[in-house]
Structures are given as C-alpha cells and as structure tokens.
Specification:
The complex is a heterodimer.
Chain A (H helix, E strand, L loop, with lengths): L3 E4 L2 E4 L5 E7 L7 E6 L6 E5 L3 E2 L7 E6 L2 E6 L8 E7 L6 E2 L3 E5 L1
Chain B lengths: L2 E5 L2 E3 L5 E8 L8 E6 L5 E7 L8 E3 L7 E6 L4 E6 L8 E7 L4 E2 L3 E5 L2
The chains are: A mainly beta, B mainly beta.
Chain lengths: ~110, ~120
C-alpha cells in the first residue's frame, strides 16, 4: 500500500502569509494526487486535481505542484476563510490513501 | 444541480450490520466510480473503498480495516451506491461520505455509531 506522509500536522499563520503543505508518497504516484479542504462539520471540498489542476470555483491563491513522490499545496495569500483542515489523497493505486491532514489556523 | 445524499446511518451494537445508501443526481452516475470515505470523531479522512463503473466491470476495492466485512454495490437504474457493513466494531464509528474523485461531488454524510 502507498503511504502518504503529510506535513505539518498543524500551522498557524497570519492573513496575507504564504502557506505551504507537503505530501510525500512512499512510492511514485505520477501526478495522481488531489487536495481537499474541510471545515468543521462540513464535507470536504476539492481544491486541486491531478496534482496541479485547480478545480472550478477555487480561488487562484490555491495552487498545487509536484509529481512522483513529493507534492505541495500552496496558499499564496492566506485569507480568514482558509482556516480549515487540508488533506491530500493519492488515487494512483488501490487502496487509495489520504494524508493525515493539516490544520491551518489564522493568527 | 448535482445532489448526493447519504442515508442509513444510526446506532448499532458491536457485531451488528448496517446498510448505507447514497443517491446521486445531476451527473452521469453510470460512468462514475463511486467512493466511500469515513471520518471518526476528531480524526482525519479514511478511504473505505470504491466501486468502478459498469464499463470497468463494477470492480471494487477496500481498505484493509474493512476488507471482508464491508461490501460496496451499485444500482445504476436508481443512481444509488450501497455500503453493506457487517461485523461492525466500535472503531467503525464515523461519519460516512460518498463522493466521486473526478467530479468532486460529495454528500453531507451519514453518521454510524457502533456502541453497546
């Protein structure tokens, strides 16, 4: 099974900061990676597909990059509404696996 | 408008069974690979399993903790995917969501509580 190691597990940043979250795969997954945002009490929402494809309606301050084993989700200018948990998901092989999640808090 | 609605959750005793349903509309359900994920209280997302479309033989795959106990099936005539859960354990307590990875269509989830 492919393990997804996500870091950091939590972070606190100020409005306007640049935030970076990383996911590392235990083996190569090409670009078969998605990123999700989840707010408390809500279902997750997709942000990025195929490692770097921005989903429709997602603000352009979100971006994804990477291929193979290392992937990054970047928020270029953190906004108050970005306070949430973020998860990566590899869909290269079964069983699919999520990262452990990153909780982003606003200072 | 896309809608995904899960149902069937509730309180069940350890060792019991439960069948969850997920009804979808507003997209091409028959072509969609439908996925179940769960989230235990205060924890992260856990992939449970998925069922591929008829074109791919409706193949299924499951996470190790549920393999042999959970079964996913689908009825394309009713735009519905099912999660049959048997031999439930307390650690299966979670909110269960169905969704499509490619379309990113999610339901609000249905809560399963396994407790004596």
């Amino acid at each position: 099974d492919i393990q997804m190691t996500q870091s950091p597990s939590s972070l606190s940043a100020s409005v306007g900061d640049r935030v970076t979250i990383t996911c590392r795969a235990s083996q190569g997954i090409r670009n078969d990676l998605a990123w999700y945002q989840q707010k408390p009490g809500k279902a997750p929402k997709g942000l990025i597909f195929a490692a770097s494809g921005l989903r429709s309606g997602v603000p352009s301050r979100f971006s994804g990059s990477g291929s193979g084993t290392e992937f990054t989700l970047t928020i270029t200018s953190l906004q108050p509404e970005d306070s949430a948990s973020y998860y990566c998901l590899q869909y290269n092989s079964c069983p699919r696996t999520f990262g452990q999640g990153t909780k982003v808090e606003i200072k | 408008e896309v809608q995904v609605v899960e149902s069937g959750g509730g309180l069940v005793k350890p060792g019991g069974s439960l069948r969850l349903s997920c009804v979808a509309s507003g997209f091409s359900f028959s072509n969609a690979w439908m996925t179940w994920v769960r989230q235990a209280p205060g924890k992260g997302l856990e992939w449970v399993g998925h069922i591929e479309s008829k074109a791919y033989g409706e193949a299924t795959d499951y996470a190790a903790p549920v393999k042999g106990r959970f079964t996913i099936s689908r009825d394309d005539s009713k735009n519905t995917v099912f999660l049959q859960m048997n031999s439930l354990k307390t650690e299966d307590t979670a909110m269960y969501y169905c969704f499509t990875v490619t379309g990113d269509y999610w339901g609000r989830g249905t809560l399963v509580t396994v407790s004596s």
